[in-house]
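Possible regression after last week's pipeline update?

I re-ran a chain I had predicted before the update to compare outputs. Posting the input and the new output here so someone can diff against the archived version. Not blocking, just want to make sure nothing changed silently.
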Amino acid sequence: MAITRRQFITRTGLAAAGSFLGPSLFRNPWLREALASTIGDRYFVVVYLDGGNDGLNTVVPVSGSLRAAYQVARVTGSGGLQLPVANLAATAIDNDPGSGGALALHPGLIGLKTLYDMGKVAVIQGCGYPSYNLSHEISRGIFQTANPFSAAGILHGWMGRYLAANYVSTDIPAINIGSDVAGEFEQTTTSVLAMSRLRNFGFPYDSYQSSDKTAKRTCFYNLYTDAAGEAAPMPKYCGDTGSATLAASESYPPLSATYVADRPSFNQSYSTLNTSMASDLREVAKTIYGVKNGVPNVNARFFEVRNGGYDTHSNQGTDGPNDQHYKLHREVGDAIEAFYADCADMGLANKLCMVIWSEFSRRITQNDSGTDHGSQGPMFVIGGTVNGGVYGNHPNIAPAALDSNGNTAYSQAAGDPFRSTDIRDVYGTILQKWLGMSDALTVLPVDGGNANTQWTAPNFTMGFLS
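New output (post-update):
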């Protein structure tokens, strides 16, 4: 017995997906109040360090009171995590704005240091949120939603709220390199693709009778086209997103071969590094190259890549080539250096902005050979038009200043030389200065309560972006 188009949609799960998403989110007036401009002819890349990166051994005190406290917390000898001053000369950066002490990047971040010396890296210290949480899942979710107190009406990811305010169901503005959509990109208005490699991306036809793929393609195309013409929001949404995904599944895979053929030296630079981060950023570069060349149905300008392994409770090491933290930093720093050079060669350095984050830092005092879960840590913003330098204050790591968990405390007190940088100030600056949003407060909730310990005075004019 033949089934109707509506029955087909129901049985393939499209109507169920629409019901789950909810019709109120297709044109949510609250989201539209953002009144933002789209990113235009630019690109934004999120780099997530999964597991909680040790911030104290990422942006390292080299002199002054911070160094003295650092040497108490991080010991030498077998299993010690103290980075010697002599080993930090090659990765020296500007001084800490609060204490005035000298700082350096971890020696493994030599690739990032190269870009820093070019003025293309902003090191943003002390990034966190009030009442920090030491759960990977919860803290990751807070970073992704920018909503530490679960304020009512603030749904989905902070970047997802931006996408929902600026794109529609026929658009695919973002790609996440991986098996799923990252939390900061989650929303229910527009599409986000998740793929590991462009060349393997394809429409999920069933594997039965591959010879009838053309007929299946025609069937899906007609069903999506029919649904897109519906007046009801849920079938229309399913039709729009289905049509866009079908077109994307045929447009993105050829980008890989084109890039390899046109850019052999840069393709080889990623292969020489031979790391997952280099391979993932190469997929981003392939897409950007396709967008630059105007390939039809290739319009992604927002990306997310991630690197795991930062849950360094033990065997973290210092700066030896086989030490875990060194290898992680070397992988990320070198891959970003190669990716930036690739984009610069395309003439796109000034159209690129990247942000690096991790769900929390690590404990100030080391355990036997690693670090437990901590609170505030550094973020990085990278790009051709980034105003490079050090922003925000290094957290206060003096033993007497640590909380009952042995972690640094969040403070928004005016004049505090260790005043924290709220993650929402970083996001808001990016939203307004790079992504053209007129009022980032529309999607970033302000805290109530004590102005010294909560985020009550947003600062979206941070100087790392003009």
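Follow-up from reviewer: compared with the archived run. DSSP finds 14 helices and twelve strands in the chain. Marking as no regression found.
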